[in-house]
Write a structure and sequence with these properties.
Blueprint lengths: L11 H5 L2 E3 L6 E3 L6 E3 L6 E3 L2 E2 L3 H19 L10 H30 L6 H10 L3 H13 L3 H7 L7 H21 L7 H39 L4
Antiparallel strand pairs: 1-2, 1-5, 3-4
Helix pairs in contact: 2-3, 2-8, 3-5, 3-7, 3-8, 7-8
The structure holds zinc ion.
């Protein structure tokens, strides 16, 4: 097991906060634990206390997810054959929080991307009401904006040590478990391995959205910065 999953002072939130975003060009980098300043390798901006790429609500969800997992794994059954309801509830919570994390990440990406286009404020304020569900956003809005679908992105974006198609297959499995739980009220017996998989898949998920952001948001932002630099002073 990844030792990070159970060690509080190596919490997943701390690892998530290693992803910083340049205020000027929006480039995202994982700066590791030494991230109190950010010299952007693309636009040259030098920042003290750079912003975290993942916002507070996302970080809270990640913390709740890990906290539920740590609690579930610390409970001791009264007897070997007796299930612990509290353990099942905590393992189910891990899956629910994980699904919320992956949905928030897609929402944040689309929101950052739409900000790069000259769209009416009324649309920017309400796009998420027009595309209300995660599946509408991923299957309709995302390919309409990028010109490529989710499946294609999983193979065109690559990172060492991460298997994005496998991550996506896990997202589907977690979503099915969450939907059965919340909409049908059954399958409360979440396998501890599945709950652990939620924590483990956070790593490729964060890396995937950092790459996606750099390719489609940061590059657009850089284009705008270059155009402004080339335009004659008025
Ligand atoms: Zn920059």
């Amino acid at each position: 097991m990844d030792p990070h999953l159970l060690i509080e002072n190596h919490s997943l939130v701390n690892l998530a906060m290693h992803y910083k975003i340049c205020r000027k060009c929006s480039r995202v980098r994982n700066l590791g634990p030494y991230s109190s300043s950010y010299q952007c390798d693309t636009c040259g901006s030098n920042e003290q206390y750079p912003n975290s790429f993942f916002d507070l609500n996302l970080l809270l969800m990640i913390d709740l997810m890990q906290d539920s997992y740590i609690t579930a794994t610390s409970l001791v059954p009264a007897s070997k054959d007796e299930p612990i309801p509290a353990e099942q509830a905590r393992l189910a919570s891990v899956v629910v929080y994980f699904c919320t994390v992956k949905e928030l990440m897609l929402h944040r990406f689309l929101s950052h991307l739409l900000d790069q286009f000259p769209l009416p404020v009324s649309f920017l304020e309400h796009w998420d009401k027009h595309y209300f569900t995660y599946s509408q956003r991923r299957e309709k809005l995302l390919p309409a904006l990028l010109g490529v679908n989710w499946e294609k992105l999983l193979t065109t974006l690559t990172a060492p040590n991460h298997d994005f198609p496998a991550m996506s297959a896990f997202l589907k499995k977690a979503t099915d478990a969450r939907d059965n739980l919340l909409h049908e009220g059954d399958h409360f017996d979440i396998d501890p391995n599945h709950a652990r998989g939620c924590l483990e898949n956070l790593f490729p998920l964060m890396e995937f959205y950092a790459l996606l952001h750099n390719k489609y948001v940061h590059e657009r932002r850089m284009d705008a910065i270059r155009r402004m630099a080339q335009s004659p002073a008025s």
